[in-house]
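Students often ask why we bother encoding 3D structure as a string. The short answer is that it lets us treat folding as translation between two languages. Here is a chain of 314 residues written in the first language.
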Amino acid sequence: MARQRADLTSRGHGPEGWEGGLHAEGEQGPIDVGLAIDPTALGVVVEAPGFGLMKMAFEIAEDGRTHLAQATRRVGRGEEMAIAVDETRTLRLEHQIDVLSAEVRALSTERDESQLRAAALIEERAAFEERVAAREAAARVEHERLAGLLDVERDQRLVALGERENAKAELERAKDQLDAGSATLLREIADARAARDAAEADRSRLSSELSEISTRLKERGVEIASMESALARSQDALAQAQVRLQSLEAKSVDAARASELEAANSALQTRLAELGDQKADLENQRGTLEAQLTALRAELEAEKATFETEKVTL
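And here it is in the second language, the structure alphabet:
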């Protein structure tokens, strides 16, 4: 069954009062509710099937308290009967109503304060969300910046790693070259030491030869001096023989004696020529020995300079 819509009527009376009524049709019958309101009284009329008609009158005090002044009820077509009112209970109920009203007002106040706090919290939450959004935006910007820095650092590390690998390879090559150079240097040092030993041996040999040549040169000098002395004596004897020959020729000595003198003179001349030749040979040998001595001294000085240079290098 379709639900019926209730009819509402109202009208005003007096400066602040009004009356109104509500009528509806239900499955059990009509339902009527009437209200009459003014600043000091309230009247309520309810009529419904199975309930009958009930009228209630309330008085409204200046402090806002409401008292039930009269209540009647009629069931069916009977007479209206007053509804008994227990004043003590009414007073207790009114007191409970006052307490409940105070509690309601306190709760209303708390509700208002809660609403204010809720509004403040909502505002704070909005401000907090704005701050969070700003921080999230700043965090995203910082994250992007740090990501960029990390990318740059990663690239730099890759470059540094490549350079490190290149440097390591270069170091390995330099080490190999150094090892090869060290081996070559060791061979050169060994060769230089061998050359030094050979130079020492040559120096010793040259010193020995120089001593020997000096000794021979001294001996040749003694021989040359002896030959020069013999040559001088021979020349003196030749001069004496020539003088005697001239003297004998002047005295007209016999031919035999003259022949002896001529033979002696010829022998002396021959001996003098031999001595001259020997002297020339000795002079030549002396010059040769002096040249050899000079060459040996120069070679010895060169070997000495080379040895000193190699010694400093080593």
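Translate back mentally: The first helix runs from residue 87 to 251. Keep this in mind for the problem set.
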